[in-house]
Amino acid sequence: MLKEFKEFALKGNVLDLAIGVVIGAAFGKIVDSLVKDLIMPIVGLLTGGVDFSNMFAVLKQGGTPGPYASVEAAAKAGAVTFNYGVFINTVISFIIIAFAIFMLVKAYNKAKAAEPPPAPAAPPEDVLLLREIRDSLKK
């Protein structure tokens, strides 16, 4: 059983998957920082300084009555909130991530298309000989 596990764990596909997961996690952090630290402040500036993450509606007052300054303050007071601003942030993040992946795949496909196709392999000797026989018989 240990030998089978070793064979499974050391196969190339498992190693490739592990590398993909690690790189994907690191790429996710980069994209998350891109969205939170670079793009969302610009979006907030374009929308007049609106911070989407603090947009919410109180569905039920908490132990201390509102108004609440933030989602965290409402949650601390025990209020039930409808956090549509967080959803807007998530949608914007998804659109940005999807666009970044689209551009990455587009660049990869363009680079792959630019590579010349490999030259066809020469036919085997016996096929060439059969073609010569066929051509001789036609004459």
Secondary-structure class: mainly alpha
Question: Compute the gyration radius: what is it?
Answer: 30 Å
The SSE string, one letter per element, is HHEHEHH
Any idea what the CATH superfamily is called? Large-conductance mechanosensitive channel, MscL, domain 1
Strand count, sense and barrel status of the largest sheet are: 2 strands, antiparallel
Kindly provide the name of the CATH class: Mainly Alpha
* Fraction in helix: 55-70%
Low-confidence stretches: none
Strand tally is 2
pLDDT average, as an integer?
Answer: 83
N-end to C-end Cα span:
67 Å
CATH arch. level architecture: Orthogonal Bundle
Stated plainly, the CATH topology is called: Non-ribosomal Peptide Synthetase Peptidyl Carrier Protein, Chain A
In the sheet with the most strands, the strands line up as 1-2
Write up this protein.
With 139 residues, the chain is mainly α. It has one domain (2-114): Non-ribosomal Peptide Synthetase Peptidyl Carrier Protein, Chain A. Helix content is 68%, strand content 5%. The protein contains five helices and two strands; from the N terminus they run H-H-E-H-E-H-H. It has helices at 2-9, 12-46, 71-77, 84-114, 125-138, and strands spanning 57-60, 80-82. Strands 1-2 form a two-stranded antiparallel ribbon. The radius of gyration is 30 Å and the shape is elongated. The protein starts with a helix and ends with a helix.
